[in-house]
Records
---
Amino acid sequence: MDAPDGFPGEHELRQLLDEVLPAGWAASVASGDEEATLAMRETLDNPTIVATLGRAGWVAPQYGTAFGGRGLSRSDAQAALGLLQDWHVPHVPRGSGLPLAAPTIDQWASDDTKRRLLPPLLSGEERWCQLFSEPGAGSDMASLATTAVRDGDEWVVNGQKVWTTFGHESEMAMLIARTDPDQPKHKGITYFGLDMRSPGVEVRQLVNMAGQVEFNEVFLSDVRIPDLLRISPVGEGWAAAMTTLGAERFALSGPKCKKRKSSDEILGGKPLDEVRAAAVGNGASQRPSTRDALVQDHIRGRLLALTSGRARAQAAAGRRGGAEGSITKIAKAMTNQTLQETAMETLGPASVAWDPADGDAAEWSTQFLRTRANSIEGGTSEIQRNIVGERVLGLPREPDPFKGQAWRDVPRS
Ligand SMILES: Cc1cc2nc3c(=O)[nH]c(=O)nc-3n(C[C@H](O)[C@H](O)[C@H](O)COP(=O)(O)OP(=O)(O)OC[C@H]3O[C@@H](n4cnc5c(N)ncnc54)[C@H](O)[C@@H]3O)c2cc1C
């Protein structure tokens, strides 16, 4: 695996991979047999490999060395991550830490806070969830009612959050809370890192309609957060939350990618090749309507891949995700949901009544049901359309009769 360094530390990274990957891995990758390599990947101890790579700075090599990275330039970091991807090496910690929390911390937090939060995030030792939505504040997130009141070097937090994906298996959370109720709703909000193991944090699991435990309610009672864990300046939490939501739209927009954790693993749904194989297998592909649906699914998938590719190229060139993320998020939700409808049509009666002995059969309807959430999670498709209307088409902003009024004076349901 020796090679001259194409990016700083490449030799060291290759040596590390030799140490952490099982014997035979290199030969499998070299043979070009992707399926064999991916099958081998199933047997790996992913958290240990991610922790090893994270501690050595290879999970986000673009961050500074004091913050868990290697201080590489954007292009060198991309080359390093490209190598991990080409080698099918697991290097993405579970949860929303890497895609959502890390860019927010990187952009907004002080160096001391970055030093505390980023290294364990990048090594996967602290997994992150997102405490934004509340029972009375979803699309209108800025009306949130969870409060954080300063007490010396700490903040005392009270309130309730909901829909917290992976809240039951996260050590840390991105929390936005109201720190000044006398400001208009977008202003008096501050963004914190919350240790989910703190006294006063109660996580209650919810079961979704597909029968999966994925998200939770989180109750916060007199939870104390050291000021060191404050990510945004006081009162600037809304702008910091926009960094997270921009990154989230981007993460929920991409096409399927087998090589690493992809949006489809989050969004659910059967891939097109499996739906097509099922249609050929049971003869549904002989029906003109099913053939037509499969062709449309193929075209939509290609269009989405090209549009997402363009958005990713812009991001790689240093442009942060903006309204493009809203466009691809709407398209991804629509494409995925329509494909799962084709899957149900393909299966016919077997989509609702299956042989219990057939372990795979229930999975089709589970995946179909899971994808109904795609047009809600990460901001609904209606809200994304509002963003596109306002920021891309230049339409008038949504009227807000309470604009400029103190949050405490605005009526809430
Ligand atoms: C699977 C899943 C995972 C999630 N994970 C997380 C998480 O980890 N952390 C987190 O904080 N949140 C999470 N959410 C919450 C998600 O962000 C919210 O559900 C979403 O923002 C919508 O809020 P709401 O459910 O309160 O619906 P509401 O805001 O009450 O909306 C109800 C309906 O009204 C429409 N609507 C509302 N306002 C407008 C408007 N101005 N213009 C047009 N239409 C409008 C909406 O589009 C929707 O159809 C998750 C949701 C799901 C489904």
Note: The pocket of flavin-adenine dinucleotide is lined by residues 129-130, 132-133, 138-139, 163-165, 215, 373, 376-377, 379-380, 382-383, 386, 398 (CB under 6 Å).
---
Amino acid sequence: MHETWHGGNVDILISGALVISPGEERPLVLPKGDIAVVGSETVYVGPSPAPQEFRSAAKVIEGSGLIALPGLVNAHTHAAMTVFRGFADDMPLMEWLTQKIWPAEARLEADDVYWGTMLACVEMIRAGVTTFADMYFFMDETAKAVERTGIRASLSRGLIGSAPGADKALAEGRELCERWNGACGGRITTMLGPHAPYTCPKDFLEKVMEVASELGVGMHIHLSETEGEVKECRKLHGGMSPVELMDSYGLFEFPVLAAHCVHVSERDIEILSAKGVGVAHNPGCNMKIASGIAPVPKMLKAGVRVGLGTDGAASNNNLDLLEEARIAAFLHKLASNDPTVLAAPEALYLATLGSARALRLEAQVGTLERGKKADIILMDSTGPHMHPHHDMISHIVYSARSSDVRTVIIDGKVVMEDGALTVVDEKEVLARAEERAQALVRR
Ligand SMILES: [Zn+2]
């Protein structure tokens, strides 16, 4: 829901920028456009100069030399895992998890999650990410970091149904939803986070679905990430794939955000499409852990709601969604031996509207449009790597750097202005996160 503007003073006017916004069919491109913001809402996107009623603004941002884009949407991450960035790399998945990540995660404290998430939020804002979907624990701390930094997020408490304490975790997941769903003027939304089919047995998923139905929230899950996981599932469940199994349990009757979907069959893709399941594609992580290549072009063709995610910083190792869009385009061209696959406009779509649709937030974010939330980023188009100006969408995907993002507006608030964060002390965040991370690996 958004308030509707009935005239009156404009809070922010971006004037004379190159405006680019993805669409379902083709992107909107205004060589010289204006954007007006009132409160948390975008009230005008159109040619410059905007009509008179939008021109008296409290704050005017001169847009020449800048590209205005909708904020990027990171459809899957574990923000606090920034504390594990570079802590363990280049290892096989199970060894990495059992010898390094899980023992270290068992030592995590609430403050580690808070400062790790603060670091992640600073990193994402700098990279033009204005919304992220997160699954982890100590989620109250994550929510506090989201509240503090002004970013938008969809939060879920990760649930391992097969572990001791599963019911306590589910109770925490419920509390997170009750306390934070719709908080910060709607900037925070919540889901339940059953970790994966192989860690959540049927009776536990039934309890999760009961809570989801009671609270009216969706679910965030890891699905078909590795070949081994799919083989094991088919062996244990009468030949059913993880997608088929979750469908048979009725999970997809709820809004579901499924991370990875690397090893999915034609039948799986049909189910994902028919049930409107959101898929978070994490190509950087899938490549680094050597999980495989998700059939993204096929899923898009079948109408699946595909978006882009970075996954956690322990397996990526950054939260740079622009880089992820480039990796996705390169990966799928190579994998299909076809350079026309995942063209630049499509890669940009995945990082914005595609991810917004995967999170079911497309009515609020993902495009620059009147009536949507004012989540807007301004990117410098004057660097040497951005010239000549033949095709700026191509430059955004194939040539730009996340450091080209100069100004970030989220929910109508300027959270970064010309390269400087305005709402948090960045130096303090970096120092505190560094301190927590160093102590954590020695604990
Ligand atoms: Zn993940």
Note: The mean pLDDT is 96.
